[in-house]
Amino acid sequence: MGSFGFWQPIIIFSLLNVILTSGLYITALSGQLSMATAALAGIGGYVSAVLTANFDWPFVPAILVAAVATAIVGGLLAALMVRMRDFILKLTTLAFGEAMSVIAFNIPYIGGANGFSGIPLYSTMTDVVVVAALAIFVAWRFDGSQLGLASRAVRDDPLAAACNGVSVRQVRVTTFALGSAVIGAGGALSAHYVLLVTPSQMGFYFSLTYIIFLLFGGLQSLWGPLVATVLLTAAPEVLRFANEYRLILYGLIILLVILWRPNGLITRRPLGPGGRGPQSGTPSDIAFSGSRGSAAVDRREVETPIGTASD
Amino acid sequence: MILFLQQVLNGLIIGSTYAVVAVGFSMVFTVLRVINFAHPDIFMVGMFTGLAAALHVSDNIVVALIGGAIGAGLFGLVLERLVIRPLRGRDVLMTLIATLGVAIMAENGMAVLKGPDPLPFPALIGLTQFHLGGVQIGERQLLNFALSLAVLGFASWYVRSTRFGRATRAIAERPDVAAAFGVNVDVISQITVVLASMMAGVASVSVAVLYGNAWAFAGLLYGLKSFVVMLVAGNRYFEGVMAVALGLGVVEALVTGYLSSSLSDAVAFFLLIAVLFVRPSGLFGSYGS
């Protein structure tokens, strides 16, 4: 693929972030809004870095193994959290992310505090485009699949979902593992582009970026978060004309969009007879469970015959 | 033994500042169900208005403290009215991100105004060191500790013994029932944010005096830790938050003294993981769980 000059790194970073956001979207769909995205991406990055730099593995198998390893870690985490809900679950992922960062910090084999350097440069524009397309495809297919519907049911009301024969444990662990695999692949790809993985980039503030992408775009569809990811990754670069004011503008954009569209940039019009779009002044229909005002979550999904979504 | 006592003392002093920020964080979360990520930056704004008061009004420490409290309080007032109130009742994460947007603006805005590097803070009080059987404590540390305790004492008295405090606790318990019994939720919410902000403002000036500088990114150091302290303690009792904050300060100081300073930042998170698995609603319990 040709060179895009000034835009090339911006496009690559946007697409790398698109991969991670797709993974987080899959995870979040079953109600597990992970605050450990950066940590999972870091695990993928470290695994692939060690395999290629220390064991001379080729690029593609290293990325696949990184994705699988991250999926296993994510699945185990989800299995531990299966009884937790909402806020506590988010906090556990936060603590998990910080713990991963600290553990990486204290392993000299992977570079400790300085991070793992000397990673071979493999990721090209083409690779990133292909994997991003693949990640979007996976998230998109997942969104409409039986598992996707079961996930929404689990997110909206685990008890009702369980009563209708959905295995909450299975859905949660599977979605978390699937999302983690995508995130791990993205992290590995990113490691072979940036050529450095550090413990600090696994921390909470980095993970928060992806949550901003997700909520800024709106959790009701896949496209909202993806648009938000590209916009917000490019924003600090595009705003360079504003010099030192650019981060102030960045903060202002986030604030104004949240105030103006509290359900995110792109919202979904519920389908079916009598389906009405989210109106201003109606109770929040944010696609989360548990908090105040979320009882009115996307009715369409609550009313889908959950029985068909189970097996 | 001297090292041990010295580190415990240092830890209590750092912990007392964590406690003031964490109690403010917790007050706002408890009453408004909002994670105010701009709270650390309210602290930062207080630092700079305190600096302005010290430079342009009088170099008396009391003037600087009042300047810090007023600046932080006004920032909190505007934040509550323009950002938090329109989003109340939304998902916790929405306000988290909106206030994070405010935090990004405040930090970088201050960095544009005053430069990205720490500014020297005038020496408003002396540097006398007191010796207590081998353990040293400076005049500024003593001031910082005493002020923090005073602020915490005030918060505790306010919540336990005043009418407003009783209304505050009522809202924390059941906002709808409190409103039905005639509590003005809007007013109490606003008072809570402003009060928490003013407490942070006082603490910020005393920290600036202690370390001799004011920095646009000073809030970051206290933000995440105070958040963790609130979660570990649970938000039912302020005294619990204070105890955990002081304890965290001491443990961090001991880890720094005996192991390594790189590990001390991790202490908070290991504590958080341990508590989440054993007592998910915090050591001292939380509202609504």
In short:
The complex is a heterodimer of chains A (311) and B (289). Chain A has 311 residues and is an all-alpha fold.
Structure report:
The complex is a heterodimer of chains A (311) and B (289). Chain A is an all-alpha fold and 311 residues long. Chain A contains 13 helices and two strands; from the N terminus they run ααααβααααβααααα. Chain A has helices at 7-29, 37-55, 59-80, 86-105, 125-144, 146-156, 158-163, 168-194, 204-217, 223-238, 246-260, 299-303, 306-309, and strands at 116-117, 196-197. Chain A has a two-stranded antiparallel ribbon. Chain A is globular and about 50 Å long. Chain A starts with 6 loop residues before the first helix and ends with a helix. The model of chain A is unreliable at 272-311 (pLDDT under 50). Chain B has 289 residues and is mainly alpha-helical. Chain B contains eleven helices and four strands. In chain B, the strands form two sheets. In chain B, strands 1-4 form a two-stranded antiparallel sheet. A two-stranded antiparallel sheet of chain B has the order 2-3. The longest helix of chain B is centred in the N-terminal third of the chain and has 31 residues, at 2-32. Chains A and B meet through helix 4, helix 9 and helix 11 of A and helix 4 and helix 11 of B.
